[in-house]
Every structure is written in C-alpha cells, then in structure tokens.
Amino acid sequence: MRRNELANTVKEELADSTAFQMRKTFIYFCRQGVYHFTRQFFIDNFFESFLNLHRDKVPHVRIEFSKALIEVKPFLEHCGNDLSIRLVEAMISLRDDADNDVADATENTDYELLKIHKTAVAKFNIQEKELLVRQKLLQAREDKEIEERKKKQEEEEENKYDFGSFLLENRKTGLKNKTRINIKSRGVGAVGSNPSGGGKAGRQLAHQNNINSSDKTPTKRKTNMTKR
Question: 70 and 109 in contact (C-beta within 8 Å)?
C-alpha cells in the first residue's frame, strides 16, 4: 500500500540518516504522528525505529526521545505489556544516562507523565476509535482507486490491440486497391481508344492512318489535272 511505502521512505530518510538533525526530526515526526496514526499502524511502521533512538550516540537525539515519551507512552499504553516494558526500560536507561542533560530531561518526562497519564490515555482511546473509522474509509477508497486503475489499464491494452488491428486491415485494403489501379492503367495503354496513346497497337494504327492520308492527296491532284 502507498501508506506503507511512504512510511518506509520516512524511516530511510530520517530515522536511518547519518545526520543527527534528521534523526531528531524523525522523533518529532513520531511525537506528532500519535495524533494521526492508529496504534497498530504506528507499531508496525515506526515503533522499532523510534525505540532504537534512545541509544543514539548524540545526546541531543536522546533528549528529544525522552521528551517524545510524554505523548508516545500514553498512546501505546494498552498495546500489550511487552511494549510498555520496553518503553519503561528505555526511560530507566535514560534516567541513568552519563549526560546530565539527558538524565534531567528524562526526570522531567517522568514527572509530566504522572500528571497527565490518566487523562492522556483516555484521550488516546477516544482518538483511536475515530482513527479506525477513518482508516476503513481510506482503505475502501484506496481499493476503489486500485480497481479503477486496473480497469483503465485493461481498457488501454484492449484499445491498443483494436487500433493495431485497424491499421493492419487498412494496410491490406490499400494494397488491394493499389493493385487494381495498376491493372487498369496497363489495360488503358494496351487497348485504349486514343490511337496516339500508349501501347504497340495504338502506335501501329496511327502509323497506318498517316500512310493512308499521304496516298489520298496526290490522287485528288491528278484527277483535277486530267479534267483540265
């Protein structure tokens, strides 16, 4: 599906980037994504890449990860004990981080989670129901688009075949007509009504007419001289 392809592109360009700024951007993307993705979609496409960044070598990335847990942890609260345990382990690791800024950011995250935990989880539960309905509608529309695209491709292939057949038939008809025209042209040259036209018979007839005309002219002059 297109959504999964886009998710893979986001991970390749951001989460797996060699630039730490891009990795920070991926964390921010996940932090905002919890308000737009279903839990299952987030888990399938982004969770592992997100979790791996808590061990990033750059402190700024680990700090950004710690801040993102304020949204991500309540979002994934009811998605199985395994996910919750892995997130808690990540928080414990960051709380004991060698970098003081990372440790302080994690302490603040833990405090914020205690304040908003119940309300945040309830909010995400309501959101999940709405997103699931929207996802079904999007999936239905995507399936319809795929079906229409497939049908259009089949029609184009069929039209391409019909057009090829049409050109082939026209070519055959053109060759037949050309042959008939050539045959008629040859016939006119051989037996045409114009004596001066082409063909051996026509030339012979014209020559004979010239001889006859030459013979008649002196005879008339001879007769006139006799009468005188």
Answer: yes
Q: What is the DSSP string of 5-31?
A: HHHHHHIIIIIT-SSHHHHHHHHHHHH
pLDDT 10s digits, 99-155: 999 999 999 999 999 888 778 888 888 887 888 887 788 778 878 888 888 888 888
Identity of the residue numbered 4: N
Domain boundaries, the chain: 2-154, 195-228
Alpha carbons 92 and 212: distance in angstroms, whole number = 131
Q: Distance between CA atoms of 103 and 86, rounded to whole angstroms?
A: 18
Any idea which residue has 């001879």 for tokens? Answer: 222
Termini Cα distance of the chain: 120
Lookup: tokens for 185:
């042209």
Single pTM value for the model: 0.59
- Please answer whether residues 50 and 58 qualify as being in contact, where contact means their C-beta atoms are separated by less than 8 angstroms: no
Instruction: Say how far apart CA 191 and CA 189 lie, in whole Å.
Output: 6
Cα dihedral 163, 169, 172, 175 in deg (nearest 10) = -70
Residue with tokens 């008939």: 180
Identify whether the C-beta of residue 69 lies closer than 8 Å to the C-beta of residue 91. yes
- Distance between CA 216 and CA 211 in Å, rounded? 9
